[in-house]
Amino acid sequence: MKKYTLIGLVIILITGLVAAGCSSSTNKKSYTFAPLEDFPEEVQLAPVSVQQAYQFAAANPEVLKEIPCYCGCGAMGHTSNFACYIQDDSNPDSLVFDGHALGCSICIDITFDTMDMLDQGMKLPEIRSEIDTIYSAFGPSNMP
Question: What is the 3-state secondary structure (H, E, C) of the chain?
Fold first, then answer.
């Protein structure tokens, strides 16, 4: 009986390892993240989801500059979801960070939805249309 139990455990272990190996190869992201050490302390101490949203924004400005935000930040002068994270990106070696998204779940949710849609292979116009549809109930867009 012990022999069969051991064989069963080995089979389960091997199956699990093979499945894990297969799933990681299909989990490739179509974008990159900026290194966390490049961010101010308040971002580094934030929850992981907030850290990842800032990292995505810094590494993918061409994406989030095309995506609106609906949290009301247009009144603060924000012109895209990117502006919720970065005030000035004129010098990529010394970005000026905006702390707004540290406390705004709508900004973070829009960014994560954008990342998910990129993973699904959607193009920016499609993503923007989906974001507009989903988030317009929260307030006005900060983009024309």
Answer: CHHHHHHHHHHHHHHHHHHHHHHHHCCCCCCCCCCHHHCCHHHHCCCHHHHHHHHHHHHCHHHHCCCCCCCCHHHHCCCCCHHHCEEECCCCCCCEECCHHHHCHHHHHHHHHHHHHHHCCCCHHHHHHHHHHHHHHHCCCCCC
Residue 22 pLDDT: 42
**5-19, 81-95, 102-116: segment of lowest average pLDDT:** 5-19
Tell me, what's the pLDDT at 88? 82
**What ranges do the domains of the chain cover?**
36-138
Give the pTM.
0.79
